[in-house]
Amino acid sequence: MFTIITGAQFGDEGKGKVVDLMSGNYDLVVRFQGGDNAGHTVKVGEDVYKLHLIPSGFLLDSRVLIGPGTVLNPEVLIREIDMLAEGGIDIGPEKLGIDARTSIIMPYHIELDGLRESRRTEKIGTTKRGIGFAYIDKVARDEIKMADIADHARLLRRLAELAPAKASAIKELDGDPGIVTDEQLVAKYVELGRRLAPYITDVSYEINKALEGGKNVLAEGAQGTHLDVIHGTQKFVTSSSTIAGSACANLGVGPTKVDDVLGIVKAYITRVGEGPLPTELADEAGKQIQEVGKEFGTTTGRSRRCGWFDLPLLKKAIYLNGYTSIALTKLDVLSDLDPIRVCVSYELDGHVLDYPPEDTAVFAQCRPVYEDLPGWEGDLTGIRSFEELPQAAQSYVLYLEKRMGVPIEYVSVGPAREQTFRKETGN
C-alpha cells in the first residue's frame, strides 16, 4: 500500500503528529520535498520532538527515508540525529536513508537567500535557510548532491567548478564572496559528508522493492498545498511542489502505485509570512485562536496569522491533491467561540465566487462570505472518540465533511498521539 500525506492549507496543519500516529502501520516513511524550512512537532507522553528533516516515523519501527526531491542542510540533519541520540533514540543507517541525488544546501545558498530577501521591496517571507537557491541550482544542474559531499575529492572538484559564479553572485548583492571557498566551512562539509556517507541509498529503488514485496509506504510532504511553487499563491509560495502528485515525481514511483491520499486540515486556517489570507482575523477571536492553538512557527518562531475555515481554498486543495480522506486537526482550539464561522464563498466586485481566483493579486482582493455555526464550550483535549464530542462540535465536523465531499477519517483534539481518534464511518 502506498499512501501520500499532504497539508491542505498553508502548512502547519499537524502533518507530523498524523504521520507519527499512522507510521506504526507502515514499513517505510519517506519525505518527498522541501527542506529545513519546514518543521514538525511530535509529542509522545511528556516528550516533545521538534524536527525539520527526519520524517516522523522514526519513533516506531518504520525505516525513514529522505528522498531526492528534498534539499538537505547536512548540519541541521546531524544536529537532529545527535539531539535524538541524547534522548536515547538511535537514528543509524539502518533506520534512516538519504538518497544519493539529494541536493545539498551550501553556506552560499543561505547567504544568497538572506541578501536577496533584504533587497526585495515586497517581502516573500522566506525563512532565509537557502531553500530557494538550492532548488535554483537543482534546476540549473549546478547543485552539489549528497553523493558529492560524501567524497572529499569530488566535493572539492565540484566547488572549484561552481565557486566563481557563486562568489560573483554574492558580491553583486554586496555580500562576502569569501564564504564560498572558506576553508573552515569546506572542512565542516567534508566532515558532515563523512558522517552521513553510510546513510546513502537509492530511495526510488527501496520504495519500489518494498511495494513489490507487499510492504506499506507512507510519503510525507512538507508545507501545504497553497504554498506549491506552481499552484500556490504566487509569489508567496515555497520553492518546491507540495501537492500529492509531486510525491510520485520526486520519489520515482509511478502514479498507478498510489492507493490513498490523505489531506491534513486544521479546523481553522493559519499562514506564516506574507500573502493573501481572506479569512484572517484581527479581532479577539483571532487572538484567542492564536494563543490557545500556540500558533507560532516550529522553524522560525514567527506568529502565525489565524482565520476562519476557508472552504473555497479547501476545494482547490481537494482538486489539486485528489484526497481520498481528511484528518481534521486542532478542533479543540475552537472551544468557547460562538458563533464559529466558515467561509463558503468570496465576494469580489459585486460578484460571488465559490473558487479562488488564479491571480494572486485578484485573490488578495476577495472578501469572505460566511455561514455561522453554533459554538461549544469546554475543554475537548480529554476526549477520545467522536461520540464524546459536544453535539455542536460533532455538527461542525459533519458540516465540513459534507461541504468538502471527502470523508473525515481522523479528528484531533490535542498534540499528543492519543488525542487523535478515528471518526467511524457512518457518523
From TrEMBL:
Compartments, record wording: Cytoplasm
Entry binding sites for IMP: 12-15, 37-40, 127, 141, 223, 238, 302
Any GO BP: IMP metabolic process
Active site, per annotation: 12 (proton acceptor), 40 (proton donor)
Cofactor: Mg(2+)
Gene Ontology cellular-component annotations: cytoplasm
Function summary: Plays an important role in the de novo pathway of purine nucleotide biosynthesis. Catalyzes the first committed step in the biosynthesis of AMP from IMP.
Family membership: Belongs to the adenylosuccinate synthetase family.
Protein name (record): Adenylosuccinate synthetase
Lineage: Archaea, Methanobacteriati, Methanobacteriota, Stenosarchaea group, Methanomicrobia
Gene name of this polypeptide: purA
